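Incident log, structure service

09:12 report received: a user says their structure output differs between two submissions of the same chain.
09:20 pulled the input from the user's history:
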Amino acid sequence: IFSKGSAVIKITWDHSATTPSPPVSEFLLICFPNYQSWQHWLSLLLSLLFLLAMGANATLLVTIRLEASLHEPMYCLLSLLSLLDVVLCLTVIPKVLAIFWFDNKAISFSGCFLQMFIMNSFLTMESCTFMVMAYDRYVAICNPLHYPSVITNQFVASAAIFVVARNGLLTMPIPILSSRLRYCAENIIKNCICTNLSVSKPSCDDITFNRLYQFVAGWTLLGSDLILIILSYSCILKAVLKIKVEGAAAKALSTCGSHFILILFFSTVLLVLVITNLARKRIPPDVPILLNILHHRIPPALNPIVYGVRTKEIKQGIQKLLRRL
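09:34 re-ran on a clean worker, output below:
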């Protein structure tokens, strides 16, 4: 305040205009804000699926580890698939159940982006593992004489390194780009999990490049895997149709039947999720959220069950394991 003659001039300083907003240290996950009443019923379903997935995958992993006859490349790839399922389960479902049961909506800034990275990278790792398994079946049926020399333990180790390196490196920029956004003290995420688009939406920066990178990376990884899987099974079907021995075609198809069922289910659920996200304005916003959670839950629960039911060697191994107990 200062005076000039008889006039008194008062200057006020607006601290809010110059003081930056405090950085966001955590996010709040708001699950199904329009359907709070049935969250307990959904939590019961998710709990059962979680226990089923963890129990089935653990049984499958222990069976393959203890049964010497299952120490083959095909079952090693199946073990890799189960490990990916277990990690996805532990990354997503416990936090969702904590929100439903204990209203624990807060998730740390770093924890949110770690969850985002694991979900994006491990989902594409599953797709890539399905692609490697399709190649395994292609060699087994179309070039059976070369199978022992092509599909070796060294091939499985190299394939596992390729699966982890390719998908981990190409999906890593997604959470990095989201974490570098300015959130302007806005930390409400209208989702049960830290997906890229849900987390980026409340930021006050332009997220065009963020969305574009996820779109290109996602379709490049998943799309290339799907194309190679389709080519592998087209060659398998073509080779099977040429088999003239009675019953040989059915036997050949049964060896990859479990694999094909899981790929079909994985791709179908993913396709439904993509369509619902594209048609977001025409459907309730909670539907894509629910489908996203179920996509991380149902395939991991079904994968070991389908293989356990349809594969004779695994079924016998599980029976031996149960007798030991």
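09:41 both user submissions now match this output. Likely a transient worker issue. Closing.
09:42 reviewer note: Residues 1 and 10 are 5 Å apart (CA to CA). The first helix runs from residue 15 to 18.
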